[in-house]
Amino acid sequence: MCAKASMDEFEALLKESFEIDTPEEGSVVKGKVIAIEAGQAIIDVGYKMEGRVDLKEFANPGEAPSINVGDEVEVYLDRVENARGEAVISRDKARREEAWDRLEKAYANETRVEGAIFGRVKGGFTVDLGGAVAFLPGSQVDVRPVRDAGPLMGIKQPFQILKMDRRRGNIVVSRRAILEESRAEQRAEVIANLSEGQTVEGVVKNITEYGAFVDLGGVDGLLHVTDMAWRRVNHPSEILSIGETVKVQVIKINKETHRISLGMKQLQSDPWDAVERAYPIGSVHKGRVTNITDYGAFVELEAGVEGLVHVSEMSWTKKNVHPGKIVSTSQEVDVMVLEIDSAKRRVSLGLKQTQRNPWEVFAETHPVGTAIEGEVKNITEFGLFIGLENDIDGMVHLSDLSWDQRGEDAIQNYRKGDVVKAAVTEVDIEKERISLSIKALGDDTFTEAVDGVKRGSVITVAVTAIEEGGIEVDYNGMKSFIRRSDLARDRQDQRPERFQVGDKVDARVTNVDSKTRRLGLSIKAREIAEEKEAVEQYGSSDSGASLGDILGAALKGADRG
After folding, report:
1. What is the 3-class SS of 169-200, one letter each residue?
2. Which contiguous run of DSSP H or E holds residue 309?
3. 293-314 burial by CB neighbour count: b if 16+ within 10 A, else e?
């Protein structure tokens, strides 16, 4: 009975011993290094079980193995016994299990973890997080693209876990998040020590089309191109270079976005303070063309002071041409100050005002009546435009082309490019107009022909043509036309066919029109006038005498006279 009790106790104790000392496969167990040989560590994991682990499993990336006899280590028990009667253990798997437990806590608490980049894979890098391998995307390495990641390999540094899945064994980390966080802290600290209006030194970090980024010691400020100098700066590289140390003034700080605006010109005196004194209205100065637009050209009078020469103030004669046809960039020109608006920082300049008005010069050198010679530049429905000196034009109106022809007919005799002579008849400086006359240089045959002829005069003309509506006649080389109704007092005699070419007839002048260069003639008016005169001289038809008697008497009187 006693013996049986002792056996039961022994079995219970043996069973308890197995349960306590025999580790479970697939778990992490503690062991002791009892020997190091052939690149392996022999580890006693208890219950008379030993296993072997390659020394490299005890090394961190880029480091030598750190293990000695007598060290206690944790290993992962794959199997209790292999074919050689040894336990199958792994330090890597133990570290991985330990690491996952630790990383899951860090992920849940959003805390940083330490690791080392040890390999390159497609799209990024592999990171050892103390036993667990994570993926570091290329975009998460740094705040800016990294061309060479060599200096970052094998160095222990903090990372932020972005995503992890233990079941799939996936971990994604970011180095960039750490840098941005520390950078933000650094920026906040630097910005807290800055104030608007403060003068600081910085290093030019980057140059763009619109300005330059200046490092103020952990925080960048934007130095806009318009704040670099009082003068016009076409590109920041004209006055700055990367790596250069510059003195700048803090213009504005946005505490929310941490954006800082900087200025260099604010540390220099503003040339506009003395513009009105240095450039009185009406004064002429030399300047340099800095920019040309469709509406004019900008001229720099001094560094920081520019004025606009509007296209309308560029030339007396070139009205509809692009400013680039008159001036070129960097050209030195003389300009006159026309207007100054200091509040708007604007100066209006004139280019043409530095030269004499060509219409004034022409009026002085070509008084009315002066003969000129020029080329026909243009032909319009109302006259000819003649090119004169200093790029100005004069116009010959249709009515000033010929004494003898209608303007519409006379203009057909001219072609573009013809060189003609004309007389100056008027110069209007204000309206910039010069009137010319070609006919003024020729003889006025009409005036000569009708010299002494007045309305009411009776003249003798020669018939030159018979027409249905009347007859054409000639007087001293001037053609006139007597209408059918003016051929006779009596209707039955108003027949053109009763006349013949070459006949000489007397006609009364009813009109002298020098504008149309025509004489108004009427035989009928002459007959009526003669009848009236005869009645007044020889009696009245009311006294009983017939008109024939009176006219007969008048004719006899005339014969006697």
Report:
1. CEEEEECHHHHHHHHHHHHHHHHHCCCCCCEE
2. strand 305-310
3. eeebbbbbbbebbbbbbebebb
Domain encompassing residue 472: 443-537
Distance CA 31, CA 89 (A): 10
C-alpha atoms less than 13 angstroms from C-alpha of 388 in its C-beta half-sphere:
28
**Could you tell me if 103 and 122 lie in one domain?**
no
pLDDT at 540 over 70: no
Numbers of helices and strands, H then E, in the chain: 9, 30
Question: 10 Å Cβ neighbour count for 352?
Answer: 19
What does 397-433 look like in DSSP terms, one character per residue?
A: EGGGS-SSS-HHHHGGG--TT-EEEEEEEEEETTTTE
Token duo for residue 177: 């998040």
Are 163 and 236 within one domain?
no
Q: How far apart are CA 284 and CA 292, in angstroms?
A: 20
The tokens for 180 are 């941005």
Query: How many angstroms separate the CA atoms of 469 and 475, rounded?
Result: 19
Residue 433, pLDDT above cutoff 80: yes
Q: CA–CA separation, 277 vs 67, rounded Å?
A: 86
Domain-located, residue 427: yes
**Residues 6+ away with beta carbon under 8 Å from 293:** 323
- Read off the pLDDT band of 47 (50, 70, 90): low
Q: Is the pLDDT of residue 27 over 70?
A: no
Structural domain count of the chain: 6
Instruction: Judge if pTM exceeds 0.70.
Output: no
144, with CB counted inside 10 A (0-12, 13-18, 19+), is exposed
Tens digits of residue pLDDT in 304-357: 888 999 999 998 888 888 999 999 999 999 999 999 988 888 899 999 888 888
Question: Is 2 part of any domain?
Answer: no
CA 38 to chain centre: 78
Round to whole Å and give the CA distance between 557 and 534. Answer: 10
